[in-house]
Fold this protein.
Amino acid sequence: MNGAVMTAPFTQFLASVPLPFWEGGQGDRFTTVLRRLQDSPHFLEIVYRAVYRMLYPFRRWLNPGSRAERIFILLERLSKIPLFDCRMCGQCILHDTGMTCPMTCPKNLRNGPCGGVRSNGHCEIIPDMPCVWVQAWERSKRMPEYGKEILHIQAPLNNSLKDTSAWINDFHLLQKMTPVGWDE
Ligand code: SF4
């Protein structure tokens, strides 16, 4: 059975749990400070590479639908939501996008900006918000290791992986699992 299906009730429960520490008051300030880290993309790519190398030898125990996945989902929610405003898509491409989450684009675009970017580099839907893809492009230029990956063409998002662990999906190549009917 698909691991994503097996964990669905639990992950739906996790997704419904509020994270009060950073939702409102002190938490908002904490989140604002933490999100400034996105302007240090080289530091973040070093951290990403280090975590990947640390976890890789254990990948045979990190299976979709396992208890380990439940822990990973919780850890990803606790770390990536405050840091990247992560939407738990389950198919993380942060290192391909200047450590900037493409799911925060109001149109959820994963292959570059739409045609509506304003002359000041802001979003056409939310004028106060810098375009996610302008930020991704600028940040990727400061990533010597993964920066060129911004030129990769991303497959359509597979919504069946939402609220699962992106790390575990990555180790099992589920990251590359495209929606039914899509040919590369
Ligand atoms: S790409 Fe997906 S998993 Fe990665 S930070 Fe964005 S929503 Fe989260």
